[in-house]
């Protein structure tokens, strides 16, 4: 099936339906989405530079600097100098940070699960479940 002019409003409708769900997830968490992004980026890589974090999360270097200082003060991340070039600074996730990330993910998932269970009928749950593969294809088009 090909995209047609009658589907022109589909991107906006999809955005309007999905975006508030992110709000449900974020409101259940105890740290900001940006800090979650930093923890996620560090969970995916052994060590990451501030510049890499800035690009991965899409925020300024200044925001990264402030957020990493706070995360470091909580013991969730640590900074270390590059072994071969002492001018380079890397961040890595601590075990406490890994546990915090998992806890934050669980909080967000539970909030979404509660909202789904409260708002959707069995038939609507099936519709959502059946739509997941199509939604995953859209995501793959953006992040292969």
Automatic annotation (TrEMBL):
* Gene3D superfamilies (alphabetical): Winged helix-like DNA-binding domain superfamily/Winged helix DNA-binding domain
Q: Which PROSITE patterns match?
A: HTH_MARR_1, HTH_MARR_2
What keywords were assigned to this record? DNA-binding, Transcription, Transcription regulation
* Domain of life of the source: Bacteria
Q: Which residues form the HTH marR-type domain?
A: 7-137
TM regions (residue ranges): none
Which biological process terms from the Gene Ontology are attached to this UniProt entry?
response to stress
A Gene Ontology molecular-function term?
DNA-binding transcription factor activity
Q: Do you know which SMART domains this protein is assigned to?
A: HTH_MARR
This one is known as: Transcriptional regulator
